[in-house]
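BUG: 3D viewer hangs when loading the predicted structure for this chain

Environment: internal workstation, default settings.
Expected: structure renders.
Actual: progress bar stalls at 90%.

Input used:
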Amino acid sequence: MHARIDALVAATAAVLALAASAPRLAAQEDDCGERAVMLVSVLDESGMIPIPGATVVLRWTDTDADRRPVRREVDLQGRLQFCAPGDARRATLWAELGDVSSRQRSVELEPGMSRDVELRLLLESSATGRMIGLVQDARTDRPVAAVAVSLGGRMVAETNRSGQFILSGVPVGVHELSLRSLGYAPLVHPVVVSKGVTTDLELGLVPEPLEMEPLVAMATRSRRLEVKGFYERKFWGERIGGATYYTAEDIERRQPLRISHMIAEEPSIRLDCSGRRCRLVSTRASLGFGGRPCGLSVYLDGVSVGRDLDEFVKPLEIAGVEIYRGAASLAAEFGGSDSRCGVVAVWTK
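Structure tokens produced before the viewer hung:
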């Protein structure tokens, strides 16, 4: 760990000379009009060294509509600008670099005003994890907003309109998670946080007049898939439709001999073995040249590997799979002319 941190600091120092000569962050030059502006800086734990290459993850809250989380990389000075949507009054954000993250910040916004936000990566004390929770009414399964979330007796977050909350930089160990909301019985539950892992929680609050036990379901997420944005695409993709997502647990349950066999069970996808090698193709005739099936593009850990997936990876090595059956459902990360018939994106453990 210390060797990795030293290497990171050394690499950061190597780009500081270039960063110093680079133009100042365009954030100060871009015009956001009457909207609120955030100027974000990502630094090391001491607050002295900018960290280029870090990713800032941001969620707008208190808006008229639910929006997808924003993931953007900082510049060579470790800085980044965000122009807030006109209806946003608060933002929740943190920074990530590999397995290291900053603490989560919640920022109040005012139209026409600029806010400076500093995020410090916890390089020396990176024995932390993250919690992502969904709070619902145990009777109706509807999300519960404005729930006060506390750890160890200290309020640390509040659920948004979708009933969600996120806690980053949580120290490793057992914590007492407490939820309180008007009209519901309090919920107190122990939660185990592991290093570099996201703990996924589904919590059911019971309306006070009902006699029943609170409901808690808990799972852990792959930290690598979290950083790559897999779970965000899965969250939104499953609501929009047209895409399928497998986790390592899904693959383990079905135990396919080859991952292509499992993918070929999806609607409008099959294995075409008419050539020297089998390939995944779309059976939608309108997509193929001359009405013939059209091959799906295949990505492995974000790199295109053509269409012969089974040569590169075995099912037991896979952490997650994303299947997009056409251009309409395609995530922006996998766009391009080669992806018109669909994409299979595979992430290894």
